[in-house]
Amino acid sequence: MNLSFFDQFSSPSLLGIPLVLLSLLFPALLFPSPGNRWVNNRLSTIQLWLLHLITKQLMIPLNKNGHKWALMLTSLMVMLLTINLLGLLPYTFTPTTQLSMNMALAFPLWLATLLTGLRNKPSASLAHLLPEGTPTPLIPALILIETTSLLIRPLALGVRLTANLTAGHLLIQLISTAAIALAPILPAVSVLTVAILLLLTILEVAVAMIQAYVFVLLLSLYLQENI
């Protein structure tokens, strides 16, 4: 029984071929393709409004140099948001519950922000490793602490997204299993459990949206430090 709870996190495959790439590409089918009339229905209008709102929120902490990253950050936000929300549907697979995928997203983007700072403003980037006014005896220790804090940023990004989504999926499966098991024994308790499950599902929708936003927002803050 314990192993079956984690079966939903195993990578799907068909004839031994992993289907993770298909899971990543499927959300793109939900968005309209460009045409002569880009805003041709209400769904496209809502999507454009959401894209404009997301881009505006992500670009607030960045200066003009950081606006070059607007397309990549917005695309990443839309991809994570779509994958997280689709993963809450029954009989679906959520790629963002895989730590390997989240680290593959977090590490290159974090490294890109770091290299951008070292290339454009090396002195300012290295100055973050040592706060101003630090007593001389504490300089080696603080440099070591700040360097460690800098290097674990991509790990924190990946683990945060993975842990929050994995915990939510496990809770949903545990409560739904309990509701099914209690149905023939205690119907009233089963109905109450289903009500709790509905509330938890609403909460998980919010968590899926918030975690996608937090992932991209932290990347934008790391970028702001280096530009």
UniProtKB/TrEMBL annotation:
Alphabetical list of Pfam families matching this protein: ATP-synt_A (PF00119)
SUPFAM superfamilies documented for this protein: F1F0 ATP synthase subunit A (SSF81336)
Tagged with keyword Transmembrane: yes
Keyword Nucleotide-binding included in the entry's annotation: no
Membrane topology annotation: Multi-pass membrane protein
Catalytic activities: H(+)(in) = H(+)(out)
InterPro entries per record: ATP_synth_F0_asu, ATP_synth_F0_asu_AS, ATP_synth_F0_asu_bact/mt, F0_ATP_A_sf
Subcellular localization(s) per the UniProt record: Mitochondrion inner membrane
Family: Belongs to the ATPase A chain family.
Name of the protein in question: ATP synthase subunit a
Organism in which the protein naturally occurs: Aix galericulata
Originating gene: ATP6
